[in-house]
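Bug #77: duplicate submission created two jobs. Keeping one. Sequence:
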Amino acid sequence: MKKIVLTAVLSLAAAGALGAEIIEQILVKVNGEIFTKSDLEQRQVAALRQKGQALDLKSDPNNVQLRKALDEITPQIIVDAVDEMLLVQRGKELGYKLSDEQFKSVVDNIRRENKIESEEQFQAALKAENMTMADLRRNLERSMIVQRVQQNEVMAKIGVTDDEARTYYDAHMNEFTTAPTVTLREILVATPADPKGVNVAAQEAALEKAKQIRRRVTSGGENFEKVAAEISDSPSKANAGLIGPLSVNDISPDLRKMIEKMKPGDVAEPVLTSRGFQVLKLESMTTAQVMPLDQAREQISERVFTDKRKAEFQKYMQKLRAQAIIEWKNPDVKRAFEEGTKQQG
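Kept job's structure:
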């Protein structure tokens, strides 16, 4: 890996700084189709750009950061390159190709999405990406063939049985369970901040006021919402003290314990908070809701299908690799490929 990374660094630097002609080097042949050093370097640069890492050789004179970045991305690049060749070759065996009509449709969509109105603008955009129309068509066709092979040879043959759905449902019940919720109303009696510490007298006065408020809305018969809107020190007074609905998972254990002893309509004793004393009324409470299996089936199918697709695609690629004639021309690239396949599975 170190050798291939260093080769890529030096050749990229030479090509960029000196404009030198790079002598093409074949790294691997897959059923006779070649993958070259230039192909590798192009993919490395694209991968670094995608990760937001620019090739700034001046700020990294010893290439330490660049070597590390390339060490991380190169194994997967080699695997992807070999697998892409195998998939495209398989697709061509099946007769897949990009028709003139399909190519024109894709190009028209590219122009429309990028607001390119003239052929001159389109050619300029291609040139900015160092591409020709032939390059674009070849890339689009390869991408289309890869997708069709994956769809028809792998995904179309994957299904989710009732037993698999039930097994996933039973093992992941929490994913289909909605936590209980509570809806409260509050009246806040704020305690003034004191830089010297707790003002005991002010706190006792606030507590007494909160107790009087609770008596007004319980034994006094006054409407809680009306009192909250009139005298609460909390911003929730604009909504008659309404708080929630809140998931019970999002409230403190102490508050949850207090609420569990209440029933809708109950008003709790004043509670000291960081803002002051809170008088809380329980408006409503819901129990945990479990989505039935029939309703969860679509979600389950998507999740199980995703896992099965990954496993089946890996099996399919292992089969194509085993049937292929892969001739490694560079031992470092071969080791990178082996490392990449280990990372996959």
